[in-house]
Design a protein that fits this description.
two-stranded antiparallel sheet; 6 helices; 2 strands
């Protein structure tokens, strides 16, 4: 598929997809006339990339775990990545806990004000 179709199917701007390619996150084939030829698996890869970015990873970090993101068979490198991903998940869990604590504090203030 061409880059425009991938953009439509994933909701990701073409320029951002080109950036992902420069970062090594996508590896499209090239047609004889130089057009990118992206595979069906790239739709899944872009969705995974977006999920990992939303989770707080950088494109450089995602590039390090390339095969783990592209849906290729896992390599031994993917095993080492699991610890980093677990650490990132723990960081997110801690951030959620802090936000929930802040929300509880706000609820307390709001309830006091509403009761007055």
């Amino acid at each position: 598929m061409r880059i425009g179709e991938l953009a439509r199917r994933t909701g990701v701007d073409e320029q951002l997809l080109r950036y992902y390619e420069k970062q090594g996150l996508l590896r499209p084939e090239r047609t004889p006339n130089g057009y990118r030829d992206l595979a069906e698996e790239d739709v899944t890869a872009v969705r995974r990339i977006r999920e990992l970015l939303a989770a707080g990873l950088t494109t450089a970090g995602i590039a390090e775990i390339g095969t783990c993101v592209r849906g290729e068979p896992p390599t031994p490198a993917c095993d080492g990545v699991l610890e980093r991903l677990r650490a990132e998940r723990s960081r997110i869990d801690a951030a959620i806990a802090r936000l929930q604590g802040a929300r509880t504090a706000l609820d307390t203030v709001i309830e006091r004000r509403d009761s007055a």
